[in-house]
Design brief:
It comes from Deinococcus lacus. It catalyses: L-threonyl-[protein] + FAD = FMN-L-threonyl-[protein] + AMP + H(+). InterPro entries: ApbE (IPR024932), ApbE-like_sf (IPR003374). Its EC number is 2.7.1.180. This protein is an alpha+beta fold. It has a single domain (2-148), classed as ApbE-like domains (T-fold, Roll). The chain is 21% helix and 37% strand. It has 3 helices and 13 strands, in the order αββββββββββααβββ. It has helices at residues 2-9, 100-112, 115-125; strands at 16-21, 24-29, 33-37, 49-53, 57-62, 67-70, 73-76, 79-80, 85-86, 92-97, 128-132, 138-140, 147-148. It has a 6-stranded antiparallel β-sheet. A 3-stranded antiparallel β-sheet has the order 3-4-13, with no helix packed on it. The chain has a two-stranded antiparallel sheet with strand order 6-7. The chain is globular.
Length: 153
């Protein structure tokens, strides 16, 4: 995605481009674009947050849409490499970063970490993120720029 959007803005006459693939979004150029972020447990619902991207990427990861139900229990497609088990501490995460590769990797990492570990990683790396908990709560890092939508305010 990073290369695709870069190639687009390097084309003659193009001053801005954005690419959205599978919910991951990359913007590059003069203007900006606005994206909605919903809780992973409510993928078809109205977004809870709006975030404006200016030359940035937004990626989300979570276990609500992908995974498998085995013996009546849902198992995430995100694996915690420390344990080899399916991640379950958080429902997912959305990350705003300078490129899509970083945003995607960090969103997946935050989906495998506990809330406290994820918040510590975000603080240490100065990452703008929303971390979604299974019960519906949402924790935003101090640098998360999104605003809540009117539907959920």
């Amino acid at each position: 995605m990073d290369r695709a959007v870069l190639a687009a803005v390097q084309s003659p006459g193009v001053s801005e481009a954005w690419v959205n693939i599978g919910g991951d979004l990359r913007h590059l150029g003069r203007g900006s674009c606005t994206a909605g972020v919903a809780h992973p447990a409510q993928p078809g619902e109205n977004p809870q947050y709006l975030v404006t991207l200016r030359g940035q990427a937004l990626a989300s990861s979570g276990h609500q849409q992908r995974g498998r139900r085995v013996a009546g229990r849902w198992h995430s497609h995100v694996i915690d490499p420390r344990t080899g088990r399916c991640a379950a501490a958080v429902a997912g995460a959305s990350v705003l970063a300078h490129c899509c590769a970083a945003a995607d990797a960090l969103a997946t990492a935050l989906s495998a970490l506990s809330l406290s570990e994820g918040l510590e990683l975000c603080r240490r790396e100065r990452v703008a993120a929303l971390i979604f908990l299974p019960g519906g709560q949402v924790r935003a890092t101090d640098c998360w720029p999104a605003r809540r939508t009117r539907q959920t305010a």
